[in-house]
Amino acid sequence: MFELGFMQNAFIAGFLVSILCPFIGLFIVLKRYSMIGDTLSHSSFAGVAIGLLTGTNPLITAFAFTSACAIIIEFLRTYYKKYSELVMSIVLTLSLGIAIILISSGKASAKVDSFLFGSILTVTESDIMLISIVGGICFITLLFLYNKLIYVTFDENGAKTAGINVKLINYIFTLLVGATISLSIRVMGILVVSSIIVVPVATAMQLKKGFTKTLIFAIVFGFLDVMIGLVLSYFVNSAPGGTIAITSVTMLILTLIIKKFTASNM
């Protein structure tokens, strides 16, 4: 299995995704932004359709379109501060409308399944290069803004008082979310990419550690979910996205069971 070129590509891409997604995911969960993962993952569908229609690398067009949607979300949030879920619905409706029109035209439907469900066979070396470059930029940006992001996540008003440009931080963070999702769709698939962002974080939070330890455990759980899911998808001949999603939920359930069993024996 590991000597196969397409599996090597899949594992490299999966490794990068498994680190970046939970890192972003912890901030998403704590900021009560869980819905943004689903919104931007479905928005990437329109970006993929544009790429397939124009003959451009779908990851590039998905990144561009998802980034645009991320900016729109953050912009509209200033007008609907108390109804942020409404903003998500607006962007989701727009994106899916564009995607459906383009896909139904018949000109962009040939390879759409691999993006909807993920495919370890279609991860190319150029995809690896793009994921590595953009993923590296996202990771470095997260590390650079780490302390400010923590401050903004827990207390936006306090961050403003401390002189932090909260609006700029939120825009950058939303762009990072969009970039992370667009990079992950090759392995995870559009329909379930948000699972690797949120579920490992939910699992890590059950351990009730501090912020930094929860982040580390979320990345560990994300790595295990992706690697186990890829191996299983190879042997079962199933779509990696669905297999990874089921693996991540199974890991969460096992953690809850172990936690309850441990607590009852104390």
Characterization of the model:
With 266 residues, the chain is mostly helical. It is globular, with a radius of gyration of 18 Å. The longest helix is centred in the first third of the chain and has 26 residues, at 5-30. The protein has twelve helices and no strands. The protein has a single domain (5-197), classed as Orthogonal Bundle (ABC transporter involved in vitamin B12 uptake, BtuC), CATH 1.10.3470. Helices cover 81% and strands 0% of the residues.
What is the compact description of this entry?
This protein has helices at residues 5-30, 34-54, 58-77, 84-104, 112-117, 125-144, 146-154, 156-161, 166-188, 193-205, 211-236, 240-264. With 266 residues, it is mainly α.
What percentage of residues falls in helices of 4 or more residues? over 70%
Number of strands: 0
Q: In whole angstroms, how far apart are the ends?
A: 43 Å
* Secondary-structure-derived class: mainly alpha
Count of spatially separate domains: 1
Low-confidence regions: none
Mean pLDDT: 80
Gyration radius from CA atoms, angstroms: 18 Å
